[in-house]
Amino acid sequence: MAPGSTVCKKAPELLAQNSDRSVAGATSDLPRLFHKLNNQLGIILANAELLERRLIDETQRARAGQVVTSAVEAIATAQQIRQLAVEPD
After folding, report:
1. What is the DSSP letter of 21?
2. Which three-class secondary structure state does DSSP give residue 28?
3. pLDDT tens for residues 14-48?
């Protein structure tokens, strides 16, 4: 992420908005948020896989492979968090 990117500039604002929410309200939003996160990670994964296949330079292909691996790990982590946070024991 570039230092001057829009996401970097909006992060403090988003954190402040999220800290104002009640715990009860946030808990009811978790399934929706996990679904949204999974969709976003799926898009990242798909695009990284496309890049990995199309790149000719080995260094760039290796970097794209790292993004693929990280996206797969992030999806697995999100699923684990969802099981702990959303699904009852």
Report:
1. S
2. helix
3. 555 555 554 455 667 888 899 999 999 999 999 99
